[in-house]
Amino acid sequence: MKLIYSVEDKPKFHQLVVFAFQQLLAIMAATIAVPLIIKNGMNTAAALFGAGVGTLVYVFFTRSKSPVFLGSSFAFIGSMSAAFAGAASMAVGYIGLILGAIFASLVYAILALFIKRIGVAWVNRIMPPVVIGPTVAIIGLSLAGNAVGDLQTSSLTGAQSQFAVLVGLIALVATMLASTYGKAHAKMIPFIIGILTGYVVALIFTIIGIQTGYEPLQILNYKPLIELFANGVSLSTFVKVPDFTFLTALDGFDQLDIGYIGTIAVAYIPVAFVVFAEHIADHKNISSIIERDLLEDPGLDRTLLGDGIGSMVGAFFGGCPNTTYGESIACVAITKNASVATIITAAFECILISFFTPFVTFISTIPACVMGGVCMALYGFIAVSGLKMVQKVDLDKNKNLFVISSILITGIGGLSLSFGNITITSVACALILGIIVNKILSKDPELSEENQ
Fold first, then answer.
1. Helix extents (H) in 158-244
2. What pLDDT shows up at residue 234?
3. What is the DSSP letter of 320?
4. How many Cα atoms within 13 Å fall on the side-chain side of residue 53?
5. Containing H/E element for 446?
6. What pLDDT is stored for residue 86 in this prediction?
7. What is the pTM of this model?
8. Residue 195 main-chain phi, psi, to 5 deg
9. How far is CA 23 from CA 52, 179, 188, 191, in A?
10. pLDDT tens per residue across span 115-148
């Protein structure tokens, strides 16, 4: 892929601000979704702050060589829920969130030391293109249901609406047109164009729907903005320090016991090994896009440390362990902008925005159908980038067909395994099965026949 901006390139400042904002929009919905799912008073602004700081940590450890943004990890949702379920109080639950991220980062650190010692050649042996390609595709395809579900949903009523689908598709088409036929600058910001187009159409539909009383047209949920200014305007209306996790956790140390710490360790450590597999898949994917092997330079040990320490720092502020985001990688692929300076700027924007209440509120009003339409392109590009890795695989061989088919069916079918609070995701299950099948069929029957 011919990049417009390579890893070391630094666009002009005004371009950086806009390009970074696009990255922010790409990861925003998923990043704030995790605290909304967990609830228990978790703060979306704090999650944004944690994602921004965590990304800066990742960039530091990877020596500014990997253009990926870190956001809230969905893989740890079960672990985070367990932290609150076994807590004596809300404050202890927040301590659990921080302890869990520390345990996960220790796993990453141990794996990084192990990899530093033995190298990464083994990764290519157990995860050749025939394995890693369809696994990357599954990362995108496994998210397809989320995109389509959002596409059909009215954010105001929560009901499915054919007009929501129309708005989402308009956002998708606007994104595609900007990326394909737009002028140079438009091609760099297709998601901003798509989201703004969808937002305006949703606003028009909603106004008409309210005036006529026709509920299916009412798509945009404007209520958070009204509630923000309902009690008048003051400094706190515009600027507010997020409710950081560590501040709430300070009140729970006197209730902490060794049994609860053990519970947190059991809930988080196994999941960290699962996320390790997805970490490799993500970095194989972005490596293919920028045509540089990030597992070699800066090295898998450094990307793991960046991911692990970034997760720990992110959870300290926002409660959510972070992980590399497929949405961010897809944004790099579609815009052909791999500038790490863009990622760094996006991280700082994320941190600043977390203090600016009206903006966080405005972002939360972007209709689900609009994000669903845009994410059809984002998730689709993840899937396609995985399939591109399979291009050079000989599909005339049954062995390769079996490996790829087992991964695709496992992932698309949504096979996941749960052991208490520990869940092995469909992506991880697909990857593990693919590795096993590839190993079982590693002996080439054609070569064996020639030797007889």
1. 162-181, 184-188, 190-212, 223-228, 235-238
2. 75
3. P
4. 20
5. helix 445-451
6. 87
7. 0.86
8. -70, -45
9. 12, 15, 11, 9
10. 999 998 888 888 899 999 998 899 889 888 889 9
Nearest to 66 by CA among 294, 307, 308, 304: 294
What sign results for the dihedral spanned by CA atoms 21, 27, 33, 34? negative
Backbone angles phi, psi at 444, to 5 degrees: -80, 115
From CA 285, how far away is CA 279, in angstroms rounded?
A: 10
Are 390 and 334 within 8 A, CB to CB?
no
Distance CA 131, CA 425 (A): 17
Burial class (CB in 10 A: 0-12, 13-18, 19+), 350: buried
The whole-number pLDDT of residue 9 equals 97
Mean pLDDT, the chain cut into blocks of 10 residues (452 residues total): 92 95 91 88 93 97 97 88 91 96 95 92 87 89 89 92 96 95 90 95 96 94 85 77 94 92 88 85 92 95 96 95 92 95 97 91 89 91 88 90 95 83 77 92 63 42
- Residue 169 buriedness (CB in 10 A; 0-12 / 13-18 / 19+): middle
Residues sharing a CB contact under 8 Å with residue 396, sequence separation 6 or more, in sequence order: none
Instruction: Give me 376's structure tokens.
Output: 């059809």
Distances in Å between the alpha carbon of 62 and those of 45, 216, 354?
26, 48, 25
Q: What is the pLDDT of residue 427?
A: 83
What lies within 8 Å, CB to CB, of 162 at 6+ separation is 216
Q: Residue 17: how many CB atoms within 10 A of its CB?
A: 15
Contact by Cβ (8 Å): 98, 249: yes
Please give the full DSSP string across 3-42, using - where no structure is assigned: -SB-TT----HHHHHHHHHHHHHHHHHHHHHHHHHH-TT-
Instruction: State both tokens at 9.
Output: 């390139």
Tell me what percent of the chain is helix, strand and coil, each rounded to the nearest 5: 75, 5, 20
CB distance 50 to 305 below 8 Å: no
For every residue of 261-315, DSSP letters joined together read: HHHHHHHHHHHHHHHHHHHHHHHHHHHHHHTS-TIIIIIHHHHHHHHHHHHHHHH
Work out the number of other CB atoms within 10 angstroms of the CB of residue 211: 9
